[in-house]
């Protein structure tokens, strides 16, 4: 699948107004979304791809081998694992309070709202580097999304050759305009703790304790459209046409433009 | 009204041409000068203004000025061309003359200035002047004019004061006019906007339209409707001169229309739905008009969707004609749908009939409207989800389920009733025969409720969603054999495959003979299956009851599935009984069999005389009930 994107930066003071404008444009109420995002990095498994090929092999074999080694060693990407969470999953009480609550009898109503890491659904989102040298003024990249089992994803990801790097939370509102998804969001960081960056958190801190990554509190408006068959020029053109039409519509409010290609580079160095 | 104020002075009555007839027409230069003097420059004149002016003159003079024109039209073309050339020459001459005069003036000024700035002045001097007059040969000096007399000064002061007063007067009157005009405009405008706000307060979506001034739009159709109806649902609210709200209906039809549902039983129409009552008493109020416009658009959309659905339902026998849809609901029930004017009195035939008669049609009419509203809500739900990836294929636009749920209900009802009457008949036969079969129970219209998603949708949507799910009825009954029961499930759906009505007959019994027939498609198959089950059930029942009177002799079922029993116990004399059950009768025929083959069960056909055939029939419908009871008959045969 291919993804076509346009981005715009929205300062905080414009956020509320833009929300209303988008609600009017799309004729729907915004859907508030909170997502945990875990970043995983592919690592080279020891032993794989270490086989050095000799210099004097026949062309047929070397061609196949080259392809295999290229596949194994060529692309090393960061991927992210996304899990939707609800606002009341962010409990102000720490992990100790949760234990107490689950211990007390008849307090099930209170503990029902607590965050349950074992039930957290996840999906794997792979994004390639945006295509280079495209003439049209949209960011286009190969994408793939796959559902993952609930609960702890780290063992599964480790088995696939990825290790956990870091995590953050994305907060925003989502709109649908025809085939375009508009996501007005910003990135939140967890408050720094001692066991940082070892594994995904089992408990979420209070939402008010989360700090905004962009200190000015500005938002990013992302207009995205997915195309099933990226090699079909006709649908790709239709998709970019739709995005351009949206850009024209929103011209007086925000300036949607393509992103810098290398800033969206997901390759692991 | 439509003319900009800068042109106003041209139309002022005091600037009219005085209607004096002169002996000789003026020459063109004179006329041009005159026009310039009187009316100002030609630059502001255009055809509209002249036309307006002519019309005004005609209005005021009353004299038809068409004499000259009539004469002119008589002139032939050659003459007109000559005249045109002549006029053209005149214009050229006049232009040349004015050019000469302008050059003279230029020469004069240049000569005058040449004293002070000889170099500059020389450039604008004509060569002739340069030859004739030397530079700087002309000078000018300021000369004090002679003092004017006191009287003249007084006159001038008076006249100028008079002019000023006049100007002030006209200015003030103009300002007052403007003020009053603005005042009325403000009143009208505020009235208009107040009314618009009142409309908005009632929950209508209102949007300003920039293209046309003083006009706002509002939407009567649902945003989720098919695009043509969504766009047609836009109507504009215009402002009348005094500020009252005018509803510009645009494409919305004038009269109110509605989808009429008629139910036809046999050959005559039994009930017909009526349009909904309008609450507003004042038919001129904007609110009433808006409501009417909304209803009309909704009804048109409803009919459009009904036609769309009816076309897809053609395999079920639904026909669409130019002006109506005909839906065969069940055996003698037919539903007719058409779009009619609601205030057409000729349609009032159904209005006088009582409510209970129209219950069916009204119910159907309400159900299709509720389902359309529900479909709109589903559209909204679908629209706000994250869309699927774009492909080259066009997305299908499935028909809304409007008629199909109702049709499934009718179909289901008819099938359930038939099955019920069938079971009642056969149970009647069994009871009449003296068998105490426990009665069956019906639980009709069970909805297969689905697991609601997360978060749970509103109750109303769950309710409607359930009405779209397949309709199910279950018949349950116990059999005479101990611990045995049967269950018949009837399931009807027209929305998802398998379409139509399907049956499932299951038997719970420890006896090995009973086997569940499983899913069945046809009514006849089900009836056969029921008869078969009951027959199998009758047989052991006979067995139980008959074993008692004659010890040692009992009927042994040989072909239980055919209802054949054999009286065993007597070595050489066999009696064979055949039980047959149908909807209307239960019959037992007993005859003697000479012998059995080696397999023990295959009965050879006996050389039976008719006198030896004993028959017992119980047929409640024809009234032929045997005098003796079933048990007595069997006992007598056993002994």
TrEMBL record, chain A:
Alphabetical list of InterPro entries matching this protein: Mediator_Med18
GO biological process, alphabetically ordered: regulation of transcription by RNA polymerase II; termination of RNA polymerase II transcription
Keyword Transcription regulation among UniProt keywords: yes
Source superkingdom: Eukaryota
Pfam name, any one: Med18
GO MF annotations in UniProt: transcription coregulator activity
Membrane-spanning parts: none
UniProt subcellular location: Nucleus
Main location: nucleus
An example Gene Ontology CC term for this record: mediator complex
Keywords: Activator, Nucleus, Transcription, Transcription regulation
Quaternary structure and interacting proteins, as annotated: Component of the Mediator complex.
Family per record: Belongs to the Mediator complex subunit 18 family.
Function: Component of the Mediator complex, a coactivator involved in the regulated transcription of nearly all RNA polymerase II-dependent genes. Mediator functions as a bridge to convey information from gene-specific regulatory proteins to the basal RNA polymerase II transcription machinery. Mediator is recruited to promoters by direct interactions with regulatory proteins and serves as a scaffold for the assembly of a functional preinitiation complex with RNA polymerase II and the general transcription factors.
Protein name according to UniProt: Mediator of RNA polymerase II transcription subunit 18
TrEMBL record, chain B:
Pfam families (UniProt xref): Med17 (PF10156)
GO CC list: core mediator complex; mediator complex
Localization terms from the record: Nucleus
One GO molecular-function entry: transcription coregulator activity
Compositionally biased intervals (Acidic residues): 66-76
Region (Disordered): 56-78
Highest taxon of the lineage: Eukaryota
Cross-referenced Gene3D superfamilies: 6.10.250.2620
Sequence similarity: Belongs to the Mediator complex subunit 17 family.
Quaternary context: Component of the Mediator complex.
Protein task: Component of the Mediator complex, a coactivator involved in the regulated transcription of nearly all RNA polymerase II-dependent genes. Mediator functions as a bridge to convey information from gene-specific regulatory proteins to the basal RNA polymerase II transcription machinery. Mediator is recruited to promoters by direct interactions with regulatory proteins and serves as a scaffold for the assembly of a functional preinitiation complex with RNA polymerase II and the general transcription factors.
PANTHER family: MEDIATOR OF RNA POLYMERASE II TRANSCRIPTION SUBUNIT 17
Entry protein name: Mediator of RNA polymerase II transcription subunit 17
Organism: Penicillium chermesinum
Gene (name only): MED17
């Amino acid at each position: 699948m291919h993804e076509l994107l346009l981005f715009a930066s929205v300062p905080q003071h414009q956020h509320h107004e833009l929300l209303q404008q988008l609600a009017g444009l799309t004729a729907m109420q915004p859907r508030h979304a909170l997502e945990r995002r875990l970043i995983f990095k592919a690592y080279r498994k020891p032993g794989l791809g270490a086989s050095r090929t000799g210099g004097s092999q026949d062309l047929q074999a070397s061609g196949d081998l080259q392809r295999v080694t290229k596949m194994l060693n060529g692309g090393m990407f960061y991927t992210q694992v996304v899990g939707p969470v609800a606002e009341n999953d962010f409990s102000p009480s720490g992990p100790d309070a949760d234990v107490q609550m689950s211990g007390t009898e008849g307090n099930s109503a209170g503990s029902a709202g607590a965050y349950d890491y074992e039930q957290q659904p996840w999906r794997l989102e792979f994004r390639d580097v945006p295509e280079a040298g495209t003439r049209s003024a949209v960011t286009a990249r190969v994408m793939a999304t796959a559902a993952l089992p609930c609960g702890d994803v780290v063992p599964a990801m480790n088995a696939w050759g990825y290790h956990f790097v870091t995590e953050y939370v994305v907060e925003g509102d989502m709109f649908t305009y025809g085939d375009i998804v508009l996501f007005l969001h910003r990135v939140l960081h967890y408050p720094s703790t001692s066991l940082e960056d070892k594994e995904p958190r089992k408990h979420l801190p209070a939402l008010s304790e989360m700090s905004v990554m962009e200190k000015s509190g500005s938002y990013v408006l992302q207009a995205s459209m997915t195309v099933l068959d990226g090699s079909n020029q006709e649908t790709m053109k239709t998709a970019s046409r739709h995005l351009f039409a949206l850009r024209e519509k929103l011209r007086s409010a925000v300036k949607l433009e393509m992103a810098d290609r290398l800033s969206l580079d997901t390759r692991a160095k | 009204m439509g003319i900009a104020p800068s042109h106003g002075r041209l139309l002022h009555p005091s600037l009219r041409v005085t209607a004096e007839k002169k002996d000789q027409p003026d020459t063109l230069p004179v006329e041009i000068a005159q026009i310039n003097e009187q009316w100002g420059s030609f630059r502001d004149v255009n055809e509209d203004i002249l036309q307006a002016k002519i019309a005004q003159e005609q209005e005021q003079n009353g004299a038809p000025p068409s004499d000259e024109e009539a004469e002119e039209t008589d002139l032939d073309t050659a003459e007109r061309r000559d005249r045109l050339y002549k006029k053209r020459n005149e214009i050229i001459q006049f232009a040349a003359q004015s050019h000469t005069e302008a050059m003279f003036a230029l020469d004069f000024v240049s000569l005058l200035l040449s004293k002070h700035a000889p170099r500059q002045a020389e450039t604008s001097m004509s060569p002739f002047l340069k030859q004739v007059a030397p530079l700087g040969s002309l000078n000018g000096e300021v000369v004090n004019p002679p003092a004017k007399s006191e009287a003249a000064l007084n006159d001038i002061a008076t006249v100028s004061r008079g002019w000023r007063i006049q100007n002030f007067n006209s200015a003030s009157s103009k300002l007052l006019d403007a003020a009053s005009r603005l005042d009325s405009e403000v009143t009208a405008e505020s009235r208009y906007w107040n009314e618009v706000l009142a409309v908005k307060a009632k929950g209508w979506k209102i949007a300003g339209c920039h293209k046309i001034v003083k006009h706002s739009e509002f939407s009567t159709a649902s945003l989720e409707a098919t695009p043509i109806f969504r766009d047609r649902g836009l109507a504009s609210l215009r402002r009348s001169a005094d500020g009252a709200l005018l509803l510009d209906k645009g494409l919305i039809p004038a009269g109110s229309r509605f989808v009429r549902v008629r139910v036809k039983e046999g050959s005559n129409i039994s009930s017909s739905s009526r349009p909904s009552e309008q609450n507003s008493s004042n038919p001129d109020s904007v609110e009433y008009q808006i409501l009417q416009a909304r209803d009309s658009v909704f009804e048109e959309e409803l009919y459009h969707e009904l036609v769309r659905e009816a076309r897809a339902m053609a395999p079920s026998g639904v026909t669409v004609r130019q002006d109506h849809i005909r839906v065969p609901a069940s055996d003698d029930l037919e539903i007719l749908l058409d779009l009619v004017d609601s205030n057409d009195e000729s349609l009032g035939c159904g209005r006088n009939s009582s409510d209970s008669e129209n219950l069916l049609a009204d119910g159907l009419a309400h159900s299709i409207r509720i389902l359309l509203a529900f479909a709109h809500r589903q559209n909204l739900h679908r629209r706000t989800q994250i869309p699927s990836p774009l492909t080259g294929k066009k997305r299908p636009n499935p028909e809304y389920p409007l008629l199909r749920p109702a049709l499934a209900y009718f179909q289901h009802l008819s099938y359930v009733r038939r099955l019920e009457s069938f079971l009642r008949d056969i149970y009647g036969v069994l009871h009449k025969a003296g068998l105490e079969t426990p009665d069956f129970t019906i639980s009709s219209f069970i909805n297969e409720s689905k697991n609601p998603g997360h978060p749970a949708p509103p109750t109303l949507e769950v309710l409607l969603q359930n009405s779209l799910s397949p309709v199910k009825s279950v018949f349950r009954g116990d059999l005479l054999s101990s611990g045995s029961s049967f269950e018949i499930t009837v399931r009807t759906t027209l929305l998802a495959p398998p379409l139509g009505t399907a049956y499932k007959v299951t038997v719970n019994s420890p006896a090995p003979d009973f086997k569940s027939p499983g899913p069945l498609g046809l009514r006849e198959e089900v009836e056969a299956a029921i008869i078969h089950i009951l027959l199998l059930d009758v047989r052991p029942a006979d067995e139980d009851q008959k074993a008692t009177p004659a010890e040692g002799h009992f009927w042994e079922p040989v072909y239980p599935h055919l209802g054949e029993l054999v009286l065993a116990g007597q070595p050489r004399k066999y009696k064979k009984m055949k039980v047959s059950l149908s909807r209307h009768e239960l019959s037992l025929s007993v005859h003697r069999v000479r012998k059995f083959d080696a397999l023990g069960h295959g009965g050879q056909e006996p050389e039976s005389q008719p006198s030896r055939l004993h028959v017992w029939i119980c047929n409640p419908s024809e009234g032929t009930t045997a005098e003796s009871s079933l048990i007595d008959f069997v006992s007598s045969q056993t002994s």
